[in-house]
């Protein structure tokens, strides 16, 4: 089977009303276009699910939470429209998370790269383990974190986003992520993370759904233009991915 067709997105509702959306891909939980589309659909469905009080985003157990976009697909981009569509994938998920009327909680158990950091930033409350190191690797392969940038900048601020963008080869610690508001809580072990996640979600599910929905609106004030903005950013990445610099850098990255 083509590796871009592997993996899954699954949704499971707890008795308390926490809808867990879990994604998996054998290549370090990377997200090809098919899985990004399924994640987008999962968040849209969660928003309409009357039994779901909150949503939890997580990936299947692996050392990596999310390795970002599929490099196999990235290498195959040979025209602008294909590139723009490819880079819009994470933008579609971020917008679906933003517009979902339920509070979205992130469970980040391991490393994140590129788009995976964007997913963390698009949650309303994000908790992580000590192993949840991360980096924005895009500049190293000829473009930048343009699509996920608004979400990351919204959480961390311009200065931290600039540092992440300009140091694509440097891993930041989970503690750095908490200090710069990407993560709201960091735990020494995954077991501690899951214990607190369970406690936090049960409490959240006991609160007024109407109040939570109103808070969600307030959290995301000023982002109504993101449907357009993230597609404009995808066009920048789509154009740069066709440059000789990017093509050579991606090929070298795959070799390594």
Q: Regarding CATH, which class?
A: Alpha Beta
- Helix-strand category: alpha/beta
Instruction: Give the tally of structural domains.
Output: 1
Q: Give the proportion of residues in helices.
A: 40-55%
The largest pleated sheet is described as:
6 strands, mixed
Oligomer: single chain
Low-confidence stretches: none
- Number of extended strands: 9
Helix-strand string = EEHEEHHEEHEEHHHEHHHH
Gross geometry:
globular
What Rg, in angstroms, do the CA atoms define? 17 Å
CATH architecture grouping: Alpha-Beta Complex
The strand line-up of the biggest sheet is 1-2-3-5-7-9
Could you characterize the architecture of this molecule?
It is a single chain. This protein has helices at 33-48, 71-75, 80-99, 115-121, 149-156, 158-166, 174-179, 190-205, 209-219, 226-240, 244-255; strands at 8-13, 18-24, 54-59, 64-66, 103-108, 111-113, 125-129, 134-135, 185-187. It is α/β, with parallel strands linked by helices. It has a 6-stranded mixed β-sheet, sandwiched between helices. A hairpin with a 4-residue loop joins strand 1 (8-13) and strand 2. Helix 1 (33-48) runs parallel beside helix 3 and helix 4 (115-121) crosses helix 5 (149-156).
Task: Give the structure's gist in a few sentences.
With 256 residues, the protein is α/β, with parallel strands linked by helices. The protein is 49% helix and 16% strand. Helix 1 runs parallel beside helix 3, helix 4 (115-121) crosses helix 5 (149-156) and helix 5 crosses helix 6.
